[in-house]
Amino acid sequence: MSRKAWLIFSCMVLAAASACSKKAPPPQVVVEIPSGFNGNFLLEMGVKEAAPLAKQGDAYLLTVPRSGKVATSTLLTSARPVFQNSSDGAVWGYSHSVFKTGDGIPVGGKIEFFVGSRKEYDAEEKRKNHSGGFPTATETGLVARG
User: Fold this and answer.
1) Nearest Cα to Cα of residue 56 among 85, 77, 86, 28
2) Domain locations along the chain
3) Is 96 helix (H, G, I), strand (E, B) or coil?
4) Cα–Cα distances in Å, from 71 out to 1, 34, 49, 96?
5) Which terminus of the chain is less hemmed in, N or C, by CB atoms within 10 Å?
């Protein structure tokens, strides 16, 4: 094989390898927050007996119920949330967690956030830290000293 042919072949292999290694973007999740909703939201994912999330094209659709809790068999290991917020509050504290087995297989997960004012969100976070959540280092007296 000539040097020119070898160079062209090498470039083609590198181009193919880089094309295969590109990850697809995480799926979009359209979260519809109804007017008047205020408080915590929890989506439990990977619940076998629950219905899957509805889809529209490539996007998953999720409407927040008055209870603020939804269970689904769908398991999203990553997501791009888009909020359609008809409520008076803002979205605070969005978190997406995935639970895995010891060998790294995703088996469940949750998405959580709060809808309301910043003052309401801060009060809710303070309440969580004082009632059942993990105590802060200051609360336990386990503060690092220099």
Assistant:
1) 28
2) 26-140
3) strand
4) 60, 18, 9, 14
5) C
